[in-house]
Amino acid sequence: MSELAHTIIIPRGNSDPVFNGPNLSLKLVVLGSNPNLAEIANTLAQDAPTYPRFVIWYKAPVLSDLQTTFPELNSIDNLKGFSTSTTNKIASKIEGNTTVDFVSVSQAFLTAGLAEFNQ
Amino acid sequence: MKKTTTFLFVFIWFQTNAQVLKIQEVTNSNEKLNLSSLSIVDINSSLEIKLNKDSLNLQIGNVTNTNPELAQEISLLNKLLKDEIEILKILKLNFSSNTPSEQILISDKFSKLMLQFIEAVKTDTTLRQSVNSYINDYFKLPSEERKKYGYYYPYVVKKITTDLKANIADLEKNITKKKVQIQLAAFLNTKAEQNRKVHIENYDSYATGEFYNVPRWVTSFSKEDVSAFNESKELAGNLNSLIGTNFKEIKKFIVNHIASISCYKNLATEIDALYINRNTLFQNNLNVVESLLKNLKEKYETINSTVSSIKSLDNNTPQNNVLENFNSSTQKLLVQINALPEEIKILFETLPANFTTTNSSILDLKSKLETCNTTLKTDFKKIEDALKFSVGIFAPFKETAGVGGTVGKEVLSFGIEDLPKLGYIDLKTTGKRENGAQLKIKIIVKTEKDSLLKTPGTVIEQQNITLQQINIHTGTSVSVILASPYNYDSNIVNLKNKFQFAPSANLLFKWGSRTSKTWNFINPGIGFNISTPDFDLDGAPEVGMGGVITLFNDIVSSGISYNTKTNNPYWFFGLSLPFSTIGLSINSIKTATK
User: Fold this and answer.
1) Cβ A37 vs Cβ A30: under 8 Å
2) Which residues of B touch A36 (CB under 8 A)?
3) Terminal CA-CA length for chain A
4) Which residue blocks in A21-86 are alpha helix, DSSP H?
């Protein structure tokens, strides 16, 4: 896997500046062992038509920890990841049965971008 | 929903089963009559044949199959065209407030369009594979190349358009092979001749006295396919016009809103002034300063010439080459202005160091150049953005518009709509015919395969029409009668038997029916009879005249007559014999003189 320049890997990395920083950005949260999703999201994060894009990869996600940032998240059992708006609201979920490719991850980012306009 | 489906089903069923041929009889008084269920027409009338093109399309589709692959490609093309039109409409909002890319990207419409595009791609497995592969390719492009597109969407659009162009061209080639020849033909069956070809005005022509078929090519598209083709053309036209409007704006944006251009222009005037006064101002370093001023002027003139070449691209609806020139000139401008600060720095380094820091004119010039260079940095971003827009949006969109504009051009070049609206058969020109003669009108579809295999094609509809003399008309017949006299003088009439054979001829009045085959079969006639019995048996025939009724095409006849020599009446019955005689003709079957 090439270097994921736009990805913050948790637990080593610190996502606070992205989630709580002053600059608005769209995020794609990757959960568990999904390197393919992380890589595709990282690639798409290089191109940001509206807001900067970041990927936060929780390699060993814990629901209760995630709920501190995303209180609306009920379960992560069948979830590969999700995208969030600039205000950290979950915009689109990538379910366990979703085919992970540029198309589906683009859709997640775009939904997050559009959520910004719908607020 | 259920009701709608049922309605659609019924509608399609009716369309599919509707008759292709609608035939009307045009009487001698120019009255148009619909054919009765028995399809009996006046033998001397004209027929007007109308094609139901919708039904014909569907019937041809049944013979030749439709083109689902092409329909799918056209549907994608139309989707792209619509999206591109929407994107260009967003751009029309306001050019002065933001750079073109900023304007597009800050709009939620753009995100919506992108999302719609991605959602549409998700439902099509093949397209999804292509889009994935193109996005992957895009991110493998060198960053400078990628910058031109700004975002993967224009790159993917460009790639899909290229694919579409190739696919549509391939499919169109195949469709040319799938074209069919349609023939509307009529044949007359009489007692004397079978399958005599009959001329249909508008559908075949006379050439050296013979008929030849005018090939009528139609394609195997459904009504929806043809609408999609037309929609592509309309959308392509709209897109082209929007590209034209936006191109003009972008060009204006580059020429009028680049502040550094006017900054350098003012500077060029100052350089000119310095050059004129060089002998007074730069006595000690005249040669070096002269060279500096010349070179600076040259740099400005080079940039100015590139801007002028962009300015001169005056085309409201830019062709591809105009766009290419615009893109290459703008690219050239970027290279020139990017290199300018460093080049100027090098030029100033040719001056002696103390002179640069002490001569007020040079210090002033240097300071103004630095101000211009700062403006240039902002301008560079704007020009880069405009170029990105032109390369990334206009060029691929122009390509899509090009495909949309030409799609279906060849295959629809002679479409079903070009078939004549009406065909006419003047029955009077069809030659010898009689009551009960059959006219067969056929629609024959011949495919490329039929031509190769020399097979006659498929008759998709045939209508049989019976020709009949309608209304009152006359006819003649001859027969042998068996005459039986009564109220006679036995001295004159010497018959030993009750009946005597005698030849006879009839002039008959008849009338046919459009609505009763039985009546036309019985074919009753009433008229005058003349016969030549020999009641006195002297060997010389007498002349008898009277009335007669005939049935079954004059095979059976019966009547009452009066023998003018023996002065007595007689009744008779008879059967027709298979030979003809000359009769008095009134309102008989007409044949046009050639």
Assistant:
1) yes
2) none
3) 36
4) 35-45, 63-69
Q: Does residue A2 lie in a domain region?
A: no
Is A98 inside any structural domain? yes
B314 CB within 8 Å of a chain A CB: no
In chain B, which residues have their Cβ closer than 8 Å to the Cβ of A47? 139, 146, 151-152
Answer for the pair A18, A79: CB distance below 8 angstroms, yes or no: no
CATH classification at residue A108: 3.40.30
Instruction: Check whether B23 has a pLDDT greater than 90.
Output: yes
Which residues in A lie closer than 8 A to residue B106 (C-beta atoms)? 50
The backbone torsions φ and ψ at residue A114, rounded to the nearest 5 degrees and listed phi first, read -70, -30
| Rg of chain B (C-alpha set) | 46
Greatest C-alpha distance within chain A = 36
Residue B247: Cβ within 10 Å count: 23
Pairing outcome for strands A7-10 and A79-84 = unpaired
* Spatial CA neighbour of A2 closest among A36, A47, A31, A39: A39
Whether the per-residue pLDDT at A93 is higher than 90: the answer is yes
User: What is the pLDDT averaged over residues B353-376?
Assistant: 80
Question: How many Cα atoms are found within 13 Å in the side-chain-facing hemisphere of B365?
Answer: 26
Question: What is the spatial distance between Cα A73 and Cα B159, in angstroms, rounded to a whole number?
Answer: 39
Asked whether residue B417 carries a pLDDT value surpassing 80, the answer given is no
d(CA B224, CA B219): 13
**Helical (H) or strand (E) element with B205:** strand B204-207
Range list of β-strands (E), B392-499:
422-426, 438-446, 458-468, 471-485
| Total count of domains within chain A | 1
Angle at CA B293, nearest 5°, toward B291 and B294?
65
Reduced to 3 states (helix: H, G, I; strand: E, B; else coil), residue B494 is coil
For residue A117, list chain B residues with Cβ-Cβ distance below 8 A: 108, 111
Q: What is the pLDDT of residues A42-92, one digit of tens each?
A: 999 987 766 789 999 999 999 999 999 899 999 999 999 999 988 889 999
pLDDT at B85: 76
B141-183 tens-digit pLDDT? 998 788 777 778 778 878 887 887 787 777 667 666 666 777 8
Provide the shortest C-alpha distance from residue A103 to chain B (in Å).
6
* Helix or strand run (H / E) with residue B571: strand B568-576
Does some domain include residue A1? no
Rounded to two decimals, the ipTM of the complex is 0.92
According to DSSP, residue B418 is labeled G
Report yes or no on A70 lying in a domain: yes
Q: What is the span of the domain harbouring residue A30?
A: 7-118
Task: Give Cβ neighbours of residue B155 (< 8 Å, ≥ 6 apart).
Answer: B134, B137, B138, B141, B146, B149, B392, B396
Q: What residues form DSSP beta bridges with B185? A: B442
Measured between CB atoms, does B114 come within 8 Å of chain A?
yes
Residue type, B521: F
Nearest Cα neighbor of B571 from B583, B561, B556 is B561
The answer to whether B114 and A10 have CB atoms below 8 angstroms apart is no
CA distances (Å), origin B459, targets B105, B181, B440, B447: 59, 12, 12, 12
Binding-site residues on chain A for chain B (CB distance < 8 A): 43-44, 46-47, 49-50, 101-104, 106-107, 110-111, 113-114, 116-118
pLDDT given for residue B98 in this prediction: 54
Which one-letter DSSP state was computed for residue A87?
T
Checking if the pLDDT of B129 tops 80, the result is: yes
DSSP B39: -
